[in-house]
């Protein structure tokens, strides 16, 4: 799945995303379960917002994404902020040629863009192969509750002067999947807006399915929780977090 034009407005649309909560969750997990973590693999890094924050926290960060456009923006941001992040264009289900890492993350529901169990399992196996012994693996996914009770059949929108959007959510073809139909209106000048449209498809799986795949890969599951906590999953949790160790 390519982000196309969406990449160039992603940061503006995501300016309220809880990036600092992802960083805090990661650092709390490292303190609770990790030994020394010096280098981190950020998969599905997008425009580098988390990679850059991790680097500023003192980690040696490598960012990986499938989108050329996203990575171009990430590289530019890293240069502007004088942050030494390495970026590679790769598919997280087929990582190759990278070093081994103390920790790997797939945050911001990036894993939900992988639509089949076989491919999710391949991603887990790929991560496992690129972790050091006792390395940590953290990721989050949309909950079934969020897919069916928040996304399904909903319409979201924003009416800002320079960038407006209509975001409609429809049931996807696969079980527990959602199709996001996005229409953007970008101001070109005082009298003209440019429209572009994209479709993004995401799918989640029951928690037990993720657990089975992780364990079959060889991971030890340390914690499964909801919504940036390390507590038990509440019925209306929107994000499910996994903390695993090789």
From TrEMBL:
SUPFAM superfamilies: S-adenosyl-L-methionine-dependent methyltransferases (SSF53335)
InterPro entries: Methyltransf_25, SAM-dependent_MTases_sf
Keywords carried by this UniProt record: Methyltransferase, Transferase
Documented EC number(s): 2.1.1.-
Domain Methyltransferase: 40-135
UniProt-listed Pfam families: Methyltransf_25 (PF13649)
GO BP annotations listed: methylation
GO MF annotation terms: methyltransferase activity
Name by which UniProt lists this protein: Class I SAM-dependent methyltransferase
Lineage: Bacteria, Bacillati, Bacillota, Bacilli, Bacillales
């Amino acid at each position: 799945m390519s982000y196309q034009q969406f990449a160039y407005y992603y940061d503006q649309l995501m300016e309220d995303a809880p990036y600092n909560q992802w960083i805090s969750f990661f650092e709390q997990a490292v303190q609770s379960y990790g030994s020394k973590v010096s280098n981190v693999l950020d998969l599905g890094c997008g425009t580098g917002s988390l990679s850059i924050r991790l680097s500023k926290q003192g980690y040696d960060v490598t960012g990986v994404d499938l989108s050329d456009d996203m990575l171009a923006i990430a590289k530019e941001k890293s240069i502007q902020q004088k942050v030494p992040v390495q970026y590679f264009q790769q598919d997280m289900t087929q990582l190759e040629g990278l070093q081994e890492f103390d920790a790997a993350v797939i945050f911001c529901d990036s894993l939900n863009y992988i639509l089949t169990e076989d491919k999710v399992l391949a991603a887990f196996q790929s991560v496992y192969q690129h972790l050091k012994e006792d390395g940590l693996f953290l990721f989050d996914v949309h909950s079934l509750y969020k897919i069916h009770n928040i996304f399904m059949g909903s319409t979201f929108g924003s009416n800002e002067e320079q960038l407006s959007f209509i975001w409609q959510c429809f049931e996807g073809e696969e079980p527990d999947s959602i199709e996001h139909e996005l229409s953007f209106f970008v101001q070109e000048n005082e009298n003209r807006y440019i429209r572009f449209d994209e479709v993004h498809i995401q799918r989640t799986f029951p928690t037990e399915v993720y657990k089975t795949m992780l364990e079959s890969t060889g991971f030890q599951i340390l914690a499964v929780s909801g919504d940036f906590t390390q507590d038990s999953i509440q019925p209306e949790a929107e994000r499910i977090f996994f903390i695993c160790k090789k």
